[in-house]
Amino acid sequence: MGKDELSMKEEEKEARERKLRKKAKKESKRAAELLKISEAETAETEVKEPADKLLNGTTNEKQDEQSSILRLSKEERKRAKKEKKKQEKIAAATSHATPLPSTPCTADAPHPLSKSEAQAWWEENEILVSGPGCDAFLPTLSFAGVGFPPDLLKCTEGFARPTPIQAQCWPVLMGGRDIIGIAETGSGKTLTFVLPGLERIRKAGAPDGGGVDILVATPGRLADLMEEGECDLSRVSYLVLDEADRMLDQGFEQAIRGIVSHCVPRGRRQTALFSATWPVAIQALAGEFLENPVKVTIGGEDLSSNKRVQQVVEVVGEFEREGRLRGLLTQYHGRRDNRVLVFALYKKEASRLELNLQRQGYKCLGIHGDKSQSDRIAAIEKFKTKEVPLLVATDVAARGLDIPDVEVVINYSFPLTIEDYVHR
């Protein structure tokens, strides 16, 4: 073969190769366009590998990959499209979800107390724990160690550590057990049952069929609403009887029995009963309403007044009391705006004292059974803000008031029972 012929054949070969490369480039561009169009129809994992090989391999490999993509059957594209939609649906459903913590935040929690350490703490704080399986519930001396999530722990900001009733009762309530808590007013009972209740709601989610998460009520009014068909308690699974002794003192035993009978039955309901005293009537009620409860007693079961309050007893005659009251107000109140609370035994007595003190120039209001609810609320708010720093009250105000910095409490007339005196 001559030199010219060889040269011609090489040129023809190069021309064919250029033509093939040009055709391959064109097909590669077309394949890329097909890939772009079919993204919504083909799963990303099925497209990525052929595309990489198509764009980076040899001409023959590109042609093979292009052919395999073009040969995707209609059924395969349909399956890929369906799978992609499924993945998009899952992603959309979880994109705004807030994951619940699988374990509580306990970074600041101290080591769990040993049984001997717990025993020493019980003795130091005069705490008695009794009931089936009570040994399993050792006190928790830090908020972070209880197991509440961070959002609930915000409720404890400003407090250095749990009170004794909280430290001992939280592990019991978080463990799902029924509980009896005996402790004086102001010991932190409210937060004791509120935080476990909120955590229970957080885990359970919204109530089925609508309705409120939490219902706070006095027994008399709630019994009325139930009788009128306005309240359905059949799904109440967390029940708190707060200040149970006081509710019985005020004659609400039958109303309480009716309310509890409409809740989830005992054994499937968690019940917490808190009281400042432990009389026989409360013991009987607890025996009916609670299932194998753990009982936590702070400071002993015997009724006692608050040891942190200085008490002074004066014996004066019937007709000397008003004069002595004026002397005490001059001594402890004068024209200052410090809060002073005066207790009277009867409504008429409280009304008379309120009027007489106003005539003497004192900023004074009264709360008793003859006052409307709105008048009572207004009087308490003015007392809290010191707009009216002197408040005359019957025992209607002895329970449930949360008013800090009351400097002096005067019992103008002694209550009928020691229990009422302690609650005042």
TrEMBL record:
One of its GO terms (molecular function) is RNA helicase activity. Its EC number is 3.6.4.13. Residues 324-424 form the Helicase C-terminal domain. Residues 56-70 have a biased composition (Polar residues). Keywords: ATP-binding, Helicase, Hydrolase, Nucleotide-binding, Nucleus, Ribosome biogenesis, rRNA processing. It is found in: Nucleus, Nucleolus. Residues 1-17, 29-52 have a biased composition (Basic and acidic residues). It is an enzyme of class 3 (hydrolase). Residues 18-28 have a biased composition (Basic residues). Belongs to the DEAD box helicase family. DDX5/DBP2 subfamily. Residues 210-296 form the Helicase ATP-binding domain. ATP-dependent RNA helicase required for 60S ribosomal subunit synthesis. Involved in efficient pre-rRNA processing, predominantly at site A3, which is necessary for the normal formation of 25S and 5.8S rRNAs. It comes from the Eukaryota. Pfam families: DEAD (PF00270), Helicase_C (PF00271). Residues 1-115 are annotated as: Disordered. The keyword Disulfide bond does not apply. This is RNA helicase.
